[in-house]
Design goal:
The structure is a single chain. The chain is about 35% helix and about 25% strand. The protein is rod-shaped and about 95 Å long. The chain has about 140 residues and is an alpha+beta fold. The chain has one helix at about 20-70, and strands at about 5-10, 15-20, 85-90, 95-105, 120-130, 130-140. It is built from one helix and six strands; from the N terminus they run E-E-H-E-E-E-E. Strand 1 and strand 2 form a beta hairpin. It has one domain.
C-alpha cells in the first residue's frame, strides 16, 4: 500500500474503501443533493407569494368590514377616497397602498326611461390592495 493511503475497514478481514474513494462518494452525494435542493427554491418562493397574498387579502377584508359597518350616510362617495379611508398596509417591511372607492350603483338594472339611473340607496364599496380587489354593497334599508 502506498504511503499516505489509508483503508477504512468494515469488519475484520474485509477489503475496505480508501479515504479518497470515501471523499469522492461524499462529494458526488453533495453535488446531487444540492441539485435537488434547487428544485425546492421555486416552491419556497411560491409559498412566500401565497402568504403575502393571503395577508394582503386579510388586510383588504378588514378594511371592507370596517367600511360596511359604517352607517350608510357616513360612507362618502369617491374614487379613491382620501385617508383615513385609503391608507397603506405593510408586509415584510414593504408598504402596499390600500385604496377604497365608493360609488352609487344601479340596483334594479332597468333600462326603461326613469329607471336605470344609479340608486341613491345603494353604494358599492371597493377595496384594492396590490391588485387584489374586493367589492361589497351597502344599502340604506
Amino acid at each position: 500500500m502506498a504511503q499516505g493511503m489509508y483503508l477504512i475497514h468494515c469488519g475484520s478481514g474485509k477489503q475496505g474503501f480508501t479515504l479518497v474513494e470515501a471523499l469522492v462518494t461524499i462529494t458526488i452525494l453533495l453535488i446531487i443533493s444540492s441539485a435537488l435542493m434547487e428544485l425546492f427554491v421555486p416552491a419556497f418562493r411560491g409559498t412566500e407569494v401565497s402568504t403575502r397574498n393571503s395577508t394582503l387579502l386579510q388586510q383588504g377584508r378588514a378594511k371592507m368590514e370596517e367600511m360596511l359597518a359604517m352607517p350608510f350616510e357616513d360612507i362618502p362617495l369617491g374614487s379613491p377616497l382620501a385617508g383615513p379611508y385609503s391608507d397603506t398596509v405593510s408586509y415584510n417591511g414593504k408598504n402596499y397602498p390600500r385604496q377604497v372607492s365608493v360609488s352609487l350603483v344601479d340596483g334594479d338594472s332597468a333600462t326603461e326611461p326613469g329607471f336605470g339611473e344609479d340608486d341613491t340607496t345603494l353604494k358599492q364599496v371597493s377595496v384594492s390592495v396590490d391588485g387584489i380587489v374586493l367589492a361589497g354593497l351597502k344599502t340604506d334599508f
